[in-house]
Design goal:
The chain has about 550 residues and is α+β, with helices and mostly antiparallel strands. The protein has four domains: about 140 residues, no CATH class; about 130 residues, no CATH class; about 120 residues, Immunoglobulin-like, CATH 2.60.40; about 100 residues. The chain is about 20% helix and about 35% strand. The chain has nine helices and 27 strands. The strands form seven sheets. The chain has a seven-stranded mixed sheet. It has a four-stranded antiparallel sheet with strand order 7-8-13-10, with no helix packed on it. It has a four-stranded antiparallel sheet with strand order 14-15-18-17, with no helix packed on it. Helix 3 crosses helix 5. The two termini are about 45 Å apart.
């Protein structure tokens, strides 16, 4: 019971943290979408503590700032970062973020995404720059809502009352989340504003917008109390609590004053407002010091391995399965009867991938042979590589030791790893995105472009390449104008010297575009021995 109380208490803390966010963001934009933004935010540090240890205020503060810097995406570098704990125990954060593409920027404070107003910068058919702001949450895009079939007036009334009741039940949590939330955004633009809706012009020429959670909550109260509006939601099939109200132009009128999008069109002679490359270079140098002061400086790169032995090898864990009925699916740990060691090895340098290995000797302290009977079971499957690419974690499976066995005399074998040189970009050239179209390198061919069977509104493309599967780092697609296409998902399959790249897009693929494949150049394969001696069955060294 105490555990449940702590968990629900943690959820309440999360809701309160979301509602306590207040942020100001002052953007300076260049043509093309690069720019900088001065960010101020006051928020409650997320500290869900289910144990007894409580970190001090300085530790909590630095952790909250580290999380903000790590989890805010699309930022190339930060500078002028300052932070403190306010008199009310909240975190105050301020900094200048530099970004290559406004549309990819997403800030996260106190573990909460700020997505009520997501700015994007695009180009219209006339070549004008378009700034737009809208909620990141788009609901069930691509899925057609089915209206309830032939509801009577009484059935509609029942559903309306049911949704009203659910809203009242959720109201305390929504109040905690929205009552104090405030988002203020302003934009300095590199040209003349020729069209604008739902954005105000400041005295110094910026465009500005304010979002207040309390106002949204007040609007929601009014809508839910409106029986006519609720009947319209029910008969259209919309779940007010599940999906919320449509954040459309009508809602914009209630929030910001005009029925229309939050949008500005910039035309004329577009000129950069500042030297992005020069300021970014300076910001990156300052950011290195900031990350170091916060204890998040990136590790010094380790030179690639070139053969040799493991620097160290130890047992990370063990697994003993005394009984397993495989055919009857009575399988402890979902495994066969046997004994498994999870080994942790320090590699002689950084590697691209540990591709496999094989157990060659496994002997108990009694001299008993513990080698698996099947060759497949002697293979090392799915080894894992640490984030810094210098440590490997792998499992070796053995026969179940006999009654008199107290330890392992020796377990040995070999691992196989790959090392690569620099990244090489292979441009497949301009090609059509249709079945049968061919690229100018890697014998690339589009195998298919079709609507997804599993996700409505999604289009999938299958591209076949002739190159080493392990050598492919990334595949990027661009439209005919050179803008990178944003993919909803991607995956690779294959082996040997043939790779199939599968990707999908919500808005479909353009008729033509370019494909660039990033390849690990000069791929080399090494074999490295491993050997561990004299450990107990619990994996501890024997004296």
């Amino acid at each position: 019971m105490r555990v449940l109380v702590r968990i629900f208490g943690a959820l309440a803390v999360a809701a309160a943290a979301a509602g306590c966010i207040q942020t100001k963001q002052d953007y300076t934009l260049n043509p093309g979408g690069s720019g900088k933004v001065v960010v101020e935010a006051t928020f409650q540090a997320m500290q869900i503590n289910l144990g007894n240890q409580k970190p001090n205020s300085e530790t909590k503060l630095k952790k909250a700032v580290r999380e903000t810097l790590k989890k805010s995406t699309g930022v190339a570098a930060w500078r002028d970062v300052e932070y403190k704990t306010t008199d009310k125990g909240k975190v105050f954060f301020k900094g200048t973020a530099y970004f290559d593409d406004l549309s990819r920027v997403q800030f996260k404070f106190g573990g909460v995404d700020i997505d009520m107003l997501k700015p994007t910068l695009t180009q219209d058919a006339q070549g004008r720059m378009v700034l737009a702001l809208k909620s990141k949450k788009k609901g069930k895009k691509g899925q057609k809502r089915k209206a309830p079939a032939q509801l009577t007036d009484d059935e509609v009334a029942i559903k309306v009352q049911d949704q009203k009741a659910k809203y009242l039940q959720a109201k305390p949590m929504m109040t905690a989340m929205l009552s104090e939330m405030k988002i203020e955004m302003s934009f300095r633009l590199p040209g003349k504003v020729v069209e604008v809706t739902n954005l105000k012009t400041t005295d110094d020429g910026r465009l500005k917008i304010d979002f207040e959670g309390a106002k949204l909550l007040q609007i929601m109260d009014g809508l839910v109390a409106d029986d006519q509006w609720m009947r319209k939601m029910v008969t259209s099939g919309r779940d007010v609590m599940g999906e919320g109200p449509a954040m459309d132009e009508a809602m914009n009128e209630k929030l910001y004053g005009e029925k229309g999008p939050v949008r500005a069109v910039i035309a004329g002679n577009l000129k950069p407002l500042f030297d992005y490359k020069a300021e970014l270079a300076a910001a990156k140098k300052e950011y290195e010091k900031i990350t170091k002061d916060l204890g998040m400086a990136p590790p010094i790169p380790v030179a690639p391995a070139k053969g040799g032995g493991l620097k160290s090898l130890r047992v990370g864990g063990i697994r003993l399965v005394y009984f397993s009925d495989w055919e009857n699916r009575a399988r402890p740990f979902n495994d066969k009867k046997g004994y498994t060691l999870s080994l942790v090895g320090k590699l002689p340098g950084s590697v691209l991938k540990v591709s496999g290995g094989e157990l060659e000797r496994a002997v108990a302290d009694t001299g008993e042979d513990l080698m698996p009977e099947q060759k497949w079971d002697r293979k090392i499957h799915f080894p894992q590589l640490s984030r810094d690419e210098t440590t490997v974690i792998f499992e070796v499976g053995m026969r179940l030791p006999g009654r008199n066995v107290k330890g392992i005399k020796e377990v040995a074998g070999t691992l196989e790893y790959l090392v690569a040189g620099a990244i090489k970009k292979v441009d497949l050239g301009m090609m059509e995105f249709k079945a049968g179209a061919k690229g100018q390198a890697l014998n690339a061919v589009v195998k298919s472009v079709k609507a997804s069977r599993w996700q409505k509104g999604m289009q999938e493309m299958e591209l076949q390449l002739e190159c080493s599967y392990d050598a492919v780092k990334a595949v990027k697609l661009f439209d005919a104008a050179g803008a990178e296409l944003k993919l909803a998902g991607s995956s690779r399959s294959g082996g040997g010297n043939r790779v199939t790249f599968n990707c999908s897009r919500r808005d479909g693929f353009p008729p033509r575009g370019k494909v660039v494949v990033e390849i690990h150049d000069k791929l080399q394969k090494y074999r490295i021995p491993f050997c561990l001696r004299n450990v107990s069955l619990l994996g501890k060294p024997l004296e």
